[in-house]
Amino acid sequence: MKKIILSIDGMTCSACSNGLEKYLNKQKCITNASVNLVMKNATIEYDEKLLNIDDIERFVKEAGFKSLGLYDIKKEKKNNNQNKFTFVFFLILAIILMYISMGHMVGLPIVDALNMHINPINYTVTLFILSLLFIGYGLDIITSGIKNLLHKTPNMDTLVSIGVISSMLYSIYSMYMVFNGNHSYVEQLYFESSAIIIFFIKLGRYIDNVSKDKTKEAIQQLVQITPNDAIIKVDGKEKKVTLDEIKKGDIVISRPGDKIAVDGEIVSGKSHIDESFITGESRPVAKTIGDKVIAGSINYDGYLEYKAVKIGKESTISEIVRLVIEATNTKAPIAKIADKVSGYFVSIVILIAIVTFLIYLILGYNVGNSINVFVTILVVACPCSLGLATPLAIIVSEGICATNGILVKKSEVLENTSKTNVVVFDKTGTLTYGSLKISKIINYSKMKDEDILQIVGSLESKSTHPVAKPFIEYLSDHKIKMLEVDEFKNISGYGIVGKIENKDIILGNEKILSKYKIKNDYKDDEEKISSLGNSIVYVVINKKIVAIIGINDIVRDNAKDVITKLNKRDIKTIMLTGDNSKTATQIANSLGIKEVKANMLPKAKANFIKNLKREHNIVMMCGDGINDSVALANSDIGISVNSGTDIAMDSSSVILTNNNLNSIINLINISTKTIKNIKQNLFWAFFYNSLMIPIAIGLFAPLGIIINPMIASFAMIISSFTVILNALRLKRIKIA
């Protein structure tokens, strides 16, 4: 299966995005399609053996829309200046049109040549010509509306198009009657209604586009983190190139103050690098030969040469942008409900308008009045605000998360997080820094401690577990040579095994002794060391225990504060660890975690999470993203605490690229406020339509409450504008 994101042209409301999404999902070789109205794109998963991009673009066209090719946020252009100029021009025309057609109603002076009573023909022709200009201005709306009606996916444009065309046709008939001498039909002209409806719809679109640009700002800021060009070494000479020209293996030069162009590995020089945009570490990190650098980070004070390792879409920042965009294209459950409602809404509104039109005729109203009500219903009921209610709020929140080191992979996370009532933490590398240090070694052999640690460090160098780090650092600090390792094997949840100098080496916790049926006569020593808060590593050579090593970890500075905040919210906290019970309990007690599950294998962790969910809990699991991958995948919200450099392989639904546990509290706050905001938006959208449709039908006419098509189109804009402003309020969320 292959996944692509296409840029889509021609979507104006949720009925559009909903119709296109349904049509794409009907195609046999497309496994999943999700269409985003705000981002104006579609994420499509398909069988690349049976389909290609041309086929998918054909499906988009068949649905009544146009594909603009693969979506690239870098290439998105803002045409606000051009749109502003056009809008101002038609604003002037709209004022002139309204003055001519309605000035006499408020006592404004009208020249005789354009007075509807003195020169009805001049008046009629002028209104007709001006309205034609507006029809040209809104031709894209009319074309889209008719096209989507023919494709059986009626949308907001369909409502407007039917209304405008109906008004224009009846007005042209009235104009014909005026030309034939029946001047009373001058009162039955609705040219100005058609024109002003289009003007207000265009005004709404302009406001929408400005607002949508603001919702995408956070994502675009991520894109702009990397520089536009760089300097590479070619045959010993420096050459300035664009990022697209850099190839894997090229040697890139970075001077103080430069931004790192691509992900790479330092081959010469040393410097301090500011990686705060991705790791959250405020202080520059010292880097030297062999260290990795991330695109977009800033070189503070040294000259560096680094080899390009990840370029283009492979870079860490590109991966973050891709995941954020994909996340905005996933739909939270609450969004799916809104989409389903708006999908049927347009058809229901058209039916209501037709029935009302017929009832008005039966009741004896003339065709002009009946059409006026018909058009008013169509325009006032446009589901624009309903379509914007959820995606705007989601995208604003996704952007806030991304720029604060919280990478959310699926929109449903933002809904589920607010319902979380249990948070499960891994210990090593999550509640602790994973910066382990060797604190105690009990040697039961005739070997020197240094020789044992050489064997342990050599075998651990093949492992990625945090436990390996202190042993590798020990060999490096004491300049001890690594020994050659054969037949290395990682046994998840137990430890590691391998051969060194033809000796069978086993390293791990007590469980690995049982697995290999090794007699343990040193349990008392283990208990003494673990009672001091140490994690235990047994060293076994040729099936004989030669040493027990105690390693200590440092609890994260803000871990206790985060646990306290979760407890205050009545969110249950649990520690789940493969470490021994005494060490785990001691750390849990110091943090305020009351429930501890120790000596847990990866499979047992996953089963524990499943059981919690069966008890109707919404479970958040926070782990290191590698050893806890099964548990993370089985939780409702899997949160990975890591450096952010292995994002593509991460199995969690949320990645904390800044390694800051406070981000859990921030995510819960953002989620809670986002869902509250969406519910407010949906309430106002439904309330607006529930109120305005009966008014448009004329049910409140006896009370003197009536509206015409022009007021209806303006009211529709106010409804959308209310939703937009409310969604943008989320930008004020305070991050701890």
Quaternary organization: single chain
Low-confidence stretches: none
Work out the helix count.
25
Strand-residue proportion: 15-25%
Mean pLDDT: 83
Largest sheet descriptor: 7 strands, mixed
Total number of strands? 26
Question: What would you report as the Rg, rounded to the nearest angstrom?
Answer: 33 Å
> N-to-C terminal Cα separation, in Å?
40 Å
Tally of individual domains: 5
Supply the helix-strand structural class. alpha+beta
Brief rundown of the structure:
Strand 20 and strand 21 form a beta hairpin. With 736 residues, this protein is an alpha+beta fold.
Q: Characteristics of this structure?
A:
6-stranded antiparallel β-sheet; elongated; 26 strands; 736 residues
What would you say this structure looks like, in words?
The chain has 736 residues and is an alpha+beta fold. The chain folds into five domains: 2-71, Alpha-Beta Plaits (2-Layer Sandwich), CATH 3.30.70; 80-217 and 324-393 and 680-730, no CATH class; 227-314, Calcium-transporting ATPase, cytoplasmic transduction domain A (Distorted Sandwich), CATH 2.70.150; 404-427 and 557-663, HAD superfamily/HAD-like (Rossmann fold, 3-Layer(aba) Sandwich), CATH 3.40.50; 437-552, 3-Layer(aba) Sandwich (Calcium-transporting ATPase, cytoplasmic domain N). It is built from 25 helices and 26 strands. The longest helix has 36 residues, at 662-697. It is elongated, with a radius of gyration of 33 Å. The model has no long low-confidence stretch (mean pLDDT 83).
